[in-house]
Amino acid sequence: MPGLSRRRALTAAAVLTTAAGASAALAPSARAEGPGHHHDSPGSFDEVYKGRRIQGRPLAPGGRHHHGAGYAVFIDGVELHVMRNADGSWISVVSHYEPVPTPRAAARAAVDELQGAALLPFPATG
Q1: pLDDT tens for residues 36-90?
Q2: Spatial distance between the Cα atoms of 124 and 115, rounded to a whole number of angstroms
C-alpha cells in the first residue's frame, strides 16, 4: 500500500482549509437573529414587514414538529409552513427553491413573493 504522497497531503490540507473558511463565512449568518441566538435554535421575532405582520417562535417540546425543527412562522396570523434543510438553511412553502439563513428571512421572502396576496393555510397531513 503506497504511503501518503506530498500531492495527496497538500490536497487534503487545501480541502480542510477551504472547509474551515466556509464554516467561518457561515458563522455570521447564524448570529443574524441577534445576541443569544445560535444556529440550532433561532429566537422569536414579531415585526411588521412591508405592511404584513410576521411572527416566528420556537414550538414548545411535544408540540407539532413537522419539518420546521420545532419552529412556527406566521404571516398575518396564518401559519407559513417552513422547513429546515440539512445545511441549516430554511425554506417555506411559498419560496421553496430559495433557501435563506433564518426563519425571519423565510417570512420576509414569502411576503415578497406573495406581493400583497393573502397566505392560504397549508393543509395539515396525518
Answers
A1: 334 467 999 999 999 999 999 998 775 555 555 689 999 999 999 999 999 999 9
A2: 24
DSSP string, 7-67: HHHHHHHHHHHHHHHHHHHHHHHHTTT-TT-BTTB---EEEEETTEEEEEEEPPTTS--SS
Length of the chain: 126
- Residue 99 half-sphere exposure toward CB, CA atoms < 13 A: 10
Quote the DSSP letter at residue 117.
P
Computed over every residue of the chain, the mean pLDDT equals: 77
Dig out the grid coordinates for 18 from the structure: 477551504
